[in-house]
Amino acid sequence: MADNSKSWDGYSIKKKLDVPEGLWCRCPGCEEMIFNRTLEENLQVCPECNYHFRISARKRIEILCDEQSFEEMLGNYSPLDPLKFSDLKTYKSRLKEQQKKTGQTDAAVVGKGYVKGRPLILAVLDPEFMMGSMGSVVGEKIAVAAETAQEAELPLVIVSSSGGARMQEGVLSLSQMAKTSAAIARLNQSGGLYISILADPTTGGVAASFALLGDIIIAEPGALIGFAGARTIWHTIKVELPEGFQKAEFLLEHGFIDMITPRNELRSEIARLIDYCGK
Amino acid sequence: MANNINQGAESTIIKSNNNDWLDFEKTLAELSNQIVELQNLQKAKGIDYSPEIRQLRNNLVKLTTKIYDNLSAWETVQVARHPKRPLLQDYLKIIVQDFRELHGDRCFGDDRAMVTGIGRIGREKVLIVGHNKGRSTEEKVACHFGCAHPEGYRKALLKMKLAEKFQLPIICLIDTPGAYPGIGAEERGQAQAIANNLMEMSLLRTPIVCVVIGEGGSGGALGIGVGDRLAIMQNAYYSVITPEGCAAILWKTGEQAAQAAEALKLTAKHLLKFNVADQIIPEPLGGAHRNHHDAAHNLEMYLVNTLRDLRRCKMDNLLENRYRKLRRIGQYSNNGSNKAASAKTRISGLAGNLSESAPETPVRKKPIAH
Ligand SMILES: [Zn+2]
Q1: In this predicted structure, what is the pLDDT of residue B366?
Q2: What is the pLDDT of residues A27-73, one digit of tens each?
Q3: Taking CB atoms and an 8 Å cutoff, what residues of chain A touch B363?
Q4: Predicted pLDDT of residue B92
Q5: Is the CB of B240 less than 8 angstroms away from the CB of A205?
Q6: Which of the listed residues A130, A253, B185, B225 has the most CB atoms within 10 Å of its CB?
Q7: What is the ipTM of this complex?
Q8: How far away, in angstroms, is A248 Cα from ligand 1 center?
Q9: Do residues B15 and B60 make contact, with C-beta atoms less than 8 angstroms apart?
């Protein structure tokens, strides 16, 4: 739903820059050439300017969880095409293409894992799969993750990285916003801890549902977070957006997130928060 | 309740002599003009044309029925946006007695795009929450064409909590192209305001009935659209994104809006099929704009009956059903096998690269009683 750059092609922004291929890549933050291995060792964060590259759900889990500790749930959930949606391409063919590209069935991975020895339920959106957009599968997985956290009395950690609701599943996608928020509401009511981590980008229907409902909300530096995309705002009100608009730092300044935490400190931060607020 | 619904009041379309014909209504406009001409001729010349007029009227009704029974998605969107379509203010006037508006979010301001207030529908005292689009240009500008800001969603929630406290059922009338996209809205947390409404509405301990009366645009509609029932007026639409927005992103040109509307399956019939809506509220022949009173009457019948049903339900059951209803929506497959992610995928960690400031020992605390 959200469209945040002029080169928006429906699914990815700055895709070529964000998915490093070959030996070197150019950092979109500082324009420097970075050795891919250096980037890899630095958790896909630019050592020069701290630009946080987007990372896949698998990579995120690898970075967050204790070694060998993640057990996936609902791994066999896969999308259908209830609307028989077709624009310039059919939704079916887009899905196939994305599944082949990412090796994932859809844009979320959920399961149980450990962070510094602390058990938790983890859900991660995958920005590489149709821009992490939320359709029925993502909605269902998030809802089940929240319910599982509640039943098992474990903390819930969700890492969002998504352009919003998935247009190709129409009003069913929209309804996932209500579904996931209602599941979080129940977890909240039962006294469970929910830590929401916002990675670049967290916009549209994902921002306007579970992502901004965390007991504690953490953003990665520079992450784009907001409701309406810059292009939508431009089209509607024809106003030039201020520098840094909708960045994590903007959200912190306006009081909508608790903290900005660089990628290499997320594990420690999660562990600390669980020690203070978990049960 | 079907008996009480005005479905095809034949006089409706003929009575209306407005010039707001939509593009797909050209043939109706011509017929209507012929009728008016004959009537004028009859008056001027004193000749009796009543058989011809009767015939034309019959044709007009038949043709209108045919066209409106087969509206395309894009045509439906146009009817939903018709300049004379009844708005919140019209329904308030016709079906709500003793309406008293309650203003302000106690925090930032009073968003004119969102109206909240108390009043009676039938015998039931209720809280009404609805998008306000405005009729005159002045009004439209004041309420941003029905696009609410965060303070609108926060006002709605504040009043809904008031309703919960005093056991008033809540009626949400949805009619918005979407939540307002702008700098102020983002600065004041549009996403957070909507998210919070979704979460809180799912738990409010009072019946909530939502009806899409015109445009059900995206998160802006859903922000007051979580409840025990969701109905949609026959020619309203409800969608994840406006057809224009969808076309701009997927077709890269807003001109494909008609195609996008079709692809999005946003009409009442589809919503019923997808179990998103529970019921379609019929509109008078030729759309609600042809007869506000009949449209309002149908809406009132629906509300009165639904409120009566929900009143019978115990609060805990009501909330459980509300949750189950939301929980069920969505279509996916869970029997396929996935090569990339088998049921148990283990991934090696990269923990060595991370800063390690928190204690390494797992902390297992006793569950807190609650
Ligand atoms: Zn850099």
Answers
A1: 42
A2: 999 999 999 999 999 999 999 999 999 999 999 999 999 999 999 99
A3: 117-118, 274-275, 278
A4: 98
A5: yes
A6: A130
A7: 0.92
A8: 17
A9: no
The residue among A110, A177, A187 with the most chain B CBs within 10 A of its CB, best to mutate, is A177
Between helix B150-165 and helix B190-201 the angle, nearest 10°, is: 20
B71 CA: distance to closest CA in chain A (Å): 18
Read off the pLDDT band of B335 (50, 70, 90).
confident
pLDDT of residue A8 exceeding 70: no
Residue A278 confidence (pLDDT)? 78
CATH architecture of the region A55-277: Alpha-Beta Complex (3.90)
Q: Which residues, chain by chain, have CB under 5 Å from ion ligand 1?
A: A 27, 29-30, 46, 48-49, 51
Alpha-carbon span B196 to B192, nearest angstrom: 6
Distance from residue A33's CA to the centre of ligand 1 (Å):
8
- Report pLDDT for A230: 82
DSSP state of B3: G
Parts of chain A belonging to CATH 3.90.226.10: 55-277
A241 and B183 in contact by Cβ < 8 A? yes
Contacts of B172 (CB under 8 A, 6+ apart): B128, B129, B130, B208, B209, B210, B211, B224, B225, B227
Alpha-carbon distance A245 to nearest alpha carbon in chain B (angstroms): 8
Chain A residue with Cα closest to B149: A227
Answer whether residue B369 shows pLDDT above 60: no
Tell me how close the Cα of A29 comes to any Cα of chain B, in angstroms: 22
Contact A66 B349 (CB under 8 A): yes
B343 pLDDT above the threshold of 50: no
Is 90 exceeded by the pLDDT of residue A254? yes
- Kindly give the interhelix angle for B292-311 and B88-95, rounded to the nearest 10 degrees: 70
The predicted model gives B233-262 an average pLDDT of: 93
End-to-end Cα separation, chain B, in angstroms = 45
Indicate whether this model's pTM tops 0.95.
Answer: no
The 3-class SS string of B305-316 reads HHHHHHHCCCHH
pLDDT band at A229 (very low <50, low <70, confident <90, very high): confident
Which of A148, A64, A78 has the alpha carbon at shortest distance from A113? A64
User: What's the pLDDT score for residue B341?
Assistant: 37
Whether A14 shows a pLDDT value over 70: the answer reads no
For chain A, the three-class secondary structure string (H helix, E strand, C coil) is CCCCCCCCCCCCCCHHHHCCCCCEEECCCCCCEEEHHHHHHCCCECCCCCCECCCCHHHHHHHHCCCCCCEEECCCCEECCCCCCECCCEHHHHHHHHHHHHCCCCCEEEEEEEECCEEEEEEEECCCCHHHCECHHHHHHHHHHHHHHHHHCCCEEEEEEECCECHHHHHHHHHHHHHHHHHHHHHHHCCCCEEEEEEEEEEHHHHCCHHHHCCEEEECCCCEEECCCHHHHHHHHCCCCCCCCCEHHHHHHCCCCCEECCHHHHHHHHHHHHHHHCC
